[in-house]
């Protein structure tokens, strides 16, 4: 078995990516403070051709060297918008026909394995590294997805959570 060279991967150019069909999924970052987490979400969103990333509140925006360090240029390919208030982002998404799911540990949450997109447009809300998704934002969501955890820790890093959820939802849309 031979490892492929980067030139053999047949990746899209940024221009071709912009024109490519996207899956109807938007990631909303609700006051995410780590620029490395933001960059990682951009990179994962690029890998699975998400429609957009919405950056809200204290979440930093490109261009920024620390975002670029983990995004590796995905901040140029993935569409993004900034909202001062996450509630405004949620309202804009609802108006555009998206359904909204928080990714959080909450009463009546559903396990990731049980969640179904039904091929509809969804936005997933990921929260701050310490406080999670704000309760006022949770109140605007129609459902909550939870990644079951069985160890001693009660949370995952926000970029790891994004990767797991995006991958699971991508498999349901599967438009590659």
Architecture overview:
This protein has a single domain (21-173), classed as SPOUT methyltransferase, trefoil knot domain (Alpha/beta knot). Strands 3-2-1-6-4-7-5 form a seven-stranded parallel beta sheet, sandwiched between helices. The chain is built from seven helices and seven strands; from the N terminus they run αβαβααβαβββαβα. The mean pLDDT is 96. Helices cover 34% and strands 20% of the residues. With 176 residues, the chain is of the alpha/beta class.
Short description:
With 176 residues, the protein is α/β, with parallel strands linked by helices. The chain contains seven helices and seven strands, in the order H-E-H-E-H-H-E-H-E-E-E-H-E-H.
Secondary-structure map:
Elements: H1 14-19, E1 23-30, H2 35-47, E2 50-56, H3 65-71, H4 74-77, E3 80-83, H5 86-95, E4 99-103, E5 110-111, E6 122-127, H6 135-138, E7 143-146, H7 158-173
Parallel strand pairs: 1-2, 1-6, 2-3, 4-6, 4-7, 5-7
Helix pairs in contact: 2-3, 2-7
Number of helices: 7
What low-confidence regions span 5 or more consecutive residues with pLDDT below 50?
A: none
Structure classification: alpha/beta
Distance N to C terminus: 25 Å
Query: Which architecture would the CATH scheme give at its second level?
Result: 3-Layer(aba) Sandwich
Determine and state the CATH class: Alpha Beta
Round the Cα radius of gyration to an integer and report it: 16 Å
Helical fraction = 25-40%
- Beta strand %: 15-25%
List how many beta strands DSSP finds: 7
Quote the CATH topology: Alpha/beta knot
Strand order in the sheet with the most strands: 3-2-1-6-4-7-5
- Tally the structural domains: 1
């Amino acid at each position: 078995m031979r490892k492929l060279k980067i030139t053999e991967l047949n990746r899209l150019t940024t221009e071709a990516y912009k024109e490519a069909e996207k899956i109807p999924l938007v990631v909303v970052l609700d006051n995410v403070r780590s620029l490395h987490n933001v960059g990682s979400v951009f990179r994962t969103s690029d890998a699975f051709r998400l429609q957009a990333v919405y950056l809200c509140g204290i979440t930093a925006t490109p261009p920024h060297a620390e975002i670029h360090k983990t995004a590796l240029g995905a901040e140029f390919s993935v569409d993004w918008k900034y909202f001062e208030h996450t509630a405004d982002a949620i309202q804009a998404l609802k108006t555009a026909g998206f359904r909204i799911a928080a990714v959080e540990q909450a009463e009546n949450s559903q396990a990731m394995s049980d969640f179904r997109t039904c091929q509809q447009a969804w936005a997933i809300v990921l929260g701050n590294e310490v406080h999670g998704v704000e309760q006022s934002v949770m109140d605007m969501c129609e459902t909550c997805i939870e990644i079951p955890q069985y160890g001693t820790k009660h949370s995952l890093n926000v970029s790891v959570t994004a990767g797991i959820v995006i991958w699971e939802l991508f498999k349901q849309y599967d438009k590659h």
